[in-house]
Automatic annotation (TrEMBL):
One of its GO terms (biological process) is mitotic cell cycle. Its main location: cytoplasm. It comes from Anguilla anguilla. This is Uncharacterized protein. It is found in: Cytoplasm. Transmembrane segments: none annotated. Keywords: Calmodulin-binding, Cytoplasm, Repeat. InterPro entries: ARM-type_fold, ASPM, IQ_motif_EF-hand-BS. GO terms for cellular component: cytoplasm; spindle pole.
Length: 314
């Protein structure tokens, strides 16, 4: 009897062992098969890419393009490690966090503007370093002098680049009093709307409007901002002031045109501009899309975007 029980136990153990071995073998075979399939698929994709590149070069290469390609290869061979974008970003973040001298801060912001415009990795590195809080603090500490306006312009552009990237948008909004800081900027620089403070892009006013509009694309964030004290009233006031200024400028332009027509004797009238119906998408600058929204320069269009996000204008 004991022998039979022992045999039954051994047979059960062997059966379970066999079943476990079958399960393990099946899983290993499935893993190896999938790995082999992925390797073959990757090889096919690489072969297709090589063939397409060869066809494109054969069809579109000109002596000028070939010369540019050779120059780029030579530049890449001579590039130093400290000149790489990621390393420059690290140095710029270090300058921004450690130094308080104006020239160092401005140089750091210029490097960060370029890095965040061209690389998503640099955007994530900037956010992980906690530099977004420093940038907002820097904006709040600036006055209306020309050097400070240049610092604010680059700082807003860095935040704008971060907000265009979906992985770092929340980091810009999550900074304490970020929306109030941006609303203060709109209030301060509303009469300078349209002035080009820096070489790239529009004014502080239009950049800040664009940044706010991007942050308020999320419904939850938009609801939180609408509940802020006086936020809606401030945007409504800014919108109507900008619209009134735009209307006055338009009437002044029309009057000048009529005077020119009466003096020149021409019956030519300017066509009425129409708004484009297509809605372009907001995307980082490293994303190449035909329907990508370009930076807004017109003050009325910029504040209109913010007002639409606040659902103030039908």
């Amino acid at each position: 009897m004991k022998i039979i029980k022992a045999q039954r136990a051994v047979r059960g153990w062997l059966s379970r062992r066999h079943t476990a071995a079958v399960v393990i073998q099946r899983a290993v075979k499935k893993y190896l098969s999938k790995k082999r399939e992925l390797r073959v698929q990757r090889g096919i994709i690489e072969a297709q890419a090589l063939w397409r590149g060869h066809r494109s070069r054969k069809a579109n290469d000109t002596p000028k393009v070939v010369a540019i390609r050779h120059r780029l290869r030579k530049v890449n061979q001579r590039v130093k490690e400290e000149d790489r974008l990621c390393n420059k970003t690290t140095v710029a973040i270090d300058y921004l966090l450690r130094y308080k001298h104006f020239s160092y801060i401005l140089a750091a912001l210029k490097h960060l503007e370029t890095a965040t415009r061209l690389s998503p990795e640099c955007c994530e590195r900037l956010v992980n370093s906690g530099a977004t809080l420093v940038i907002f603090t820097l904006i709040r500490s600036c006055n209306r002098s020309v050097p400070c306006m240049e610092v604010i312009t680059f700082a807003i552009q860095v935040l704008l680049n971060l907000s265009k990237y979906y992985k770092t948008t929340e980091a810009v909004y999550a900074v304490e009093n970020s929306v109030n800081t941006l609303l203060d900027l709109l209030q301060i620089y509303r009469e300078k709307a349209g002035d080009k403070v820096a070489d790239k892009g529009g004014s502080i006013f239009t950049k800040t409007c664009f940044l706010l509009a991007i942050l308020l694309q999320d419904e939850q964030r938009a609801l939180e901002v609408r509940n802020l004290p006086k936020a809606t009233d401030r945007i409504r006031s800014l919108y109507f002031l900008t619209a009134r200024k735009h209307k006055m400028d338009t009437e002044r332009t029309v009057t000048k045109l009529k005077m020119n027509v009466s003096l020149n004797g021409s019956l030519f009238t300017q066509p009425t501009p129409r708004k484009a119906k297509a809605r372009p998408r907001i995307a980082p600058d490293w994303v190449l899309r035909r329907d990508k929204m370009k930076e807004v320069v017109d003050p009325l269009q910029a504040i209109q975007m913010v007002a639409d996000a606040f659902t103030l204008v039908p």
